[in-house]
Amino acid sequence: MRLIKLDVKLQNTLFWDIKTRLTRSLTTIEWIDTNARVYSKDTIDLLYSTYDYEFRILPKICTISIKGISAGVLGMEFQD
């Protein structure tokens, strides 16, 4: 699947943002070791993976319906 120009810019932005936040004395991230994928036209999230970390980016319109869930916490629903 081909990435459109906007997806590539988003991948570059996320890569440089993460790279600048890491302490250089501890670790480094290289562009060669990163990968970004768009699953499909119907699934509008972007998966960006580097080494063992994966970042899923959702458009803001999709996160409006998810209120009360803080970042990094999964909303779990139990069914009886």
From TrEMBL:
Q: Where is the signal peptide?
A: none
Q: Which domain of life is it from?
A: Eukaryota
Record GO biological process = spliceosomal tri-snRNP complex assembly
Q: Which SUPFAM superfamilies match?
A: Ribonuclease H-like
Give the CC-aspect GO terms.
catalytic step 2 spliceosome; U5 snRNP
A GO molecular function for this record? U5 snRNA binding
Quote the protein name from its UniProt record: Uncharacterized protein
